[in-house]
Design a protein that fits this description.
By secondary structure, the protein is α+β, with helices and mostly antiparallel strands. 21% of the residues lie in helices and 33% in strands. It is globular.
């Protein structure tokens, strides 16, 4: 298939005029000829001597589709020479002091690193909010204080409920947990997380050199189980992390509506309640970019947004942005106001759910039913298994849903199942 930028080309998509989209074996860094941004991706579009990122290529496709045209060499030329109309999130506003709503910066850093670290002579304690990648890979972040002291021999781990003196109820014991350096971060690997642990669950970890069981993982049980979005939660959690990490977990919508919600929850500004907020222009632009290579038109995405608003899944809130283009909510005095689309996760008492309310509503204090759902794994460099693809096709056809029955790129599928202690 040839090479591009030093990497092997694994797939060539159908040529659109003079533009050829290619998939590479590994992600490469390059400067897009249209938006002038440095990108790192496995998807690169080539037009003569110019390189386009997947987002700019997709926007050209979507615009041509909306106009009832087939992208041609003239379209490709306009992609190469026109100035970017809406840069990605994170681009600073122009020097004129104006700010296109699509340029809004969501400057909420979230490293996923341990916090509340306490280092004593023989013990190190810390807290962490579990992420989807930790559940998939069986890992847990470790603070530098432990990484500097701990031996690189297998460690024993105990899982307990409660905290402090009450954290004595060991319900699982796992030997063979190891330390591993991964991209500058030290991780515990070989951790078998339990079914009740969700992305966003707060975990307290203690490493004690004086005991035979050196690692203790403990969870703080909520006084009453709650349903966050459509997911039963039994342990203390961070609403922000749960909104981000459980995107596409708790709703069954058509594909375009799902893409809108995923983009809003993964890219939006998060408040303390876990609400995700973003200007409509930024949401539209990023949904178009992230939907590739499905090439949904901007018209379809706008219509999907209107449907979500009409059903109350999305609402309008007011925020503001400063001279640097940074988004804030609620609106701050002296800043430029801006309307924001808002996703608010539902929160209710799990014990009040009626098992007869339908699929996904059978919640109880001891077990609950989880509806079939998509889980995003593409950003982890993973691909869905053949079994997951077959299960998605079968359930999609059985539900009589419109659209293709193939699992979307970058996702895996988890079938409806029971979870609980």
């Amino acid at each position: 298939m040839g090479t591009l930028l030093g990497e092997t080309v694994t797939k060539r998509y159908p040529r659109r005029g003079s533009v050829q989209l290619m998939r590479l074996r590994a992600a490469v860094s390059f400067t897009c000829s249209q938006c002038r941004q440095v990108k790192k991706s496995r998807l690169v579009a080539v037009s003569g001597a110019n390189l386009l990122c997947n987002g700019c290529y997709g926007r050209g496709e979507a615009e041509a589709t909306e106009q009832g045209q087939t992208p041609s060499s003239e379209t490709a030329m306009s992609l190469r020479t026109s100035e970017p109309s809406s840069p990605p999130l994170g681009v600073e506003p122009s020097a004129r002091g104006t700010c296109d709503p699509a340029r809004i910066v969501v400057s909420q850093s979230d490293s996923g690193l341990p916090y509340s670290v306490m280092d004593a002579d023989m013990t190190v304690t810390w807290k962490v909010h579990v992420r989807a990648r930790d559940l998939l890979d069986g890992t847990c972040p470790v603070p530098a204080q432990m990484a500097d002291k701990a031996p690189h021999t297998p460690l024993n781990a105990a899982f307990v409920r409660g905290r402090g003196r009450k954290a004595r109820n060991i319900f699982d014991y796992q030997p063979g947990v190891r330390l591993r350096l991964d991209g500058g971060r030290t991780l515990l690997v070989g951790v078998s997380w339990h079914p009740h642990v969700l992305p966003g669950t707060r975990v307290s970890v203690r490493w004690d050199q004086r005991t035979r069981t050196r690692l203790h993982f403990s969870y703080t049980r909520l006084s009453k189980p709650v349903v966050f979005g459509g997911t039963v939660v039994r342990y203390a959690y961070d609403p922000k992390v749960m909104t981000r990490e459980l995107a596409a977990f708790d709703v069954r919508l058509d594909r375009v509506e799902e893409l809108v919600l995923i983009a809003l929850r993964e890219l939006g500004y998060l408040d303390e309640r876990g609400r995700a907020l973003l200007p409509q222009e930024a949401l539209l632009r990023n949904t178009v970019e992230r939907a590739q290579p499905e090439r949904h038109s901007t018209k379809k995405i706008r219509e999907a947004t209107e449907r979500l608003l009409s059903r109350g899944i999305l609402t309008w809130e007011e925020g503001s942005f400063n001279r640097a283009g940074e988004l804030h909510h609620p609106a701050r005095y002296g800043e430029t106001p801006i309307p924001l689309l808002c996703y608010t996760p539902t929160l209710r008492d799990a014990e009040r759910e009626n098992p007869r309310n339908g699929v996904g509503a059978a919640y109880s204090a001891s077990a609950h039913r989880v509806a079939g759902h998509l889980m995003r794994i593409g950003h982890l460099g993973k691909e869905a298994s053949p079994e997951a693809r077959a299960a998605y096709r079968e359930d999609h056809r059985r539900a009589g849903l419109a659209g293709p029955h193939e699992l979307p790129r970058g996702f895996t599928y988890v079938r409806e199942h029971e979870r609980g202690m």
